[in-house]
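Give me the fold.
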Amino acid sequence: MSNLKPSFIRKRIFHASELAPSASPEAAAQVLGNGRWRCAHDTVPFALWCALNHGASYRAALWTTAMGAGRLNATCALVAGILAAGGREAPASWQSQTDRLPEFLTPRRPTGTLASPYRRTSAWP
């Protein structure tokens, strides 16, 4: 929290850190926001609360997030990203059901340059 400058989002993230893990997802979304207003201060605090309090199970974290309603694509993507940053991956059974990334978005090994790890095989339209 000390890295965040005083702002509305910092205040809401603080509320997320104080909200009981046992709170219902609906109540948490009402207090913290659920992405309905399409802005960071209405999306990030709830996603953090879901990931930190229910992240022991990838499935539980995403279902908890979905129960908060709102912009599910944004909040669930944030929770999945937070869990991945912490070393948690989607279950293998879920990964096997996803589409492969296009070739130009496939991560490649660093070559010692500061270039992007994603290769583009063609120019953008």
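The mean pLDDT is 83.
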